[in-house]
Specification:
The chain is α/β, with parallel strands linked by helices. It has one domain: P-loop containing nucleotide triphosphate hydrolases (Rossmann fold, 3-Layer(aba) Sandwich). It contains 11 helices and 10 strands. The strands form 2 sheets. It has a 6-stranded mixed sheet, with helices on both faces. The chain has a 4-stranded antiparallel sheet with strand order 2-1-4-5, covered by helices on one side. Helix 3 runs parallel beside helix 7. The longest helix has 16 residues. It is globular. The relative contact order is 0.18.
């Protein structure tokens, strides 16, 4: 397993947000975490990235325990977080944002090759490489956020709400990109409010409610689960 999460507990102040959450994923998978707003999905992403402190439980990445490491050490291991809302350096150019993704020693050594790959994946970024990130459309900004993550040579990409604020056609393009990235050998952990898309793109899924995993299984089976259809698919 590339990632194993064992019984993690996370608090915000005195409020317990994650309550003994466990899951795991292999090196080839796309795993989705679905649930309603406030269920704890984004907190899982922050906990894995070292942003939200884990009070108890364990996280193993590539066989190494990493739940007490600072964010920069986690990035150095190859776990890369594509955050909700893109979080770009808005007054820097496209190319400068991509340079920031390649600041690690190994990534910097492979920067030219990585740039070629992300420009092949997102040709529009090559056309706009000297534009400020703030001048890009929402879809282009999401492309840049993904491309910046790829510049870090990830061993695992975790995505938090990649479709947020995008038009339906752009959402479809983003999810096509996720499939291409995964087919290229990078596993993906996905948090996504659009449940039908999350289930369609992933092999397995976990359903979280009130900070607890309440259901898990193959995504193709969860699509037909009565609770999932009623709560998340509007059926």
């Amino acid at each position: 397993m590339i990632l194993t999460v064992e019984q993690i507990v996370v608090y915000y102040g005195e409020v317990r947000v994650l309550d003994h959450v466990s899951f795991q994923m292999s090196e080839s998978e796309v795993i989705s975490i679905i649930g309603s707003n406030g269920a704890g999905k984004t907190t899982i992403m922050k906990a894995l990235s070292g942003i939200a402190p884990i009070r108890s439980g364990n996280v193993y990445f590539l066989g190494e325990k990493m739940d007490r490491l600072p964010p920069h050490k986690i990035v150095d291991m190859g776990l890369i977080h594509i955050p909700e809302g893109r979080m770009l350096f808005s007054h820097m150019t496209v190319l400068e944002n991509l340079d920031m993704g390649a600041y690690l020693k190994k990534a910097k050594a492979n920067k030219r090759e990585s740039l070629e790959k992300v420009f092949q994946l997102f040709p529009v970024l090559a056309e706009r490489k000297n534009q400020q990130a703030s001048t890009l459309s929402g879809g282009e900004q999401q492309m840049l956020s993904i491309a910046r993550g790829l510049m870090s040579l990830p061993k695992l990409l975790i995505f938090d709400e990649p479709s947020l604020g995008l038009a339906p056609l752009l959402v479809e393009n983003v999810f096509k990109t996720l499939r291409i990235i995964n087919e290229g050998g990078i596993p993906i952990l996905l948090v996504e409010q659009n449940t039908s898309l999350a289930l369609a793109v992933s092999q397995r899924s976990y359903v979280i409610e009130n900070g607890n995993v309440v259901l898990s299984g193959k995504s193709e089976n969860l699509i037909n689960d009565e609770m999932v259809k009623r709560a998340f698919l509007g059926i």
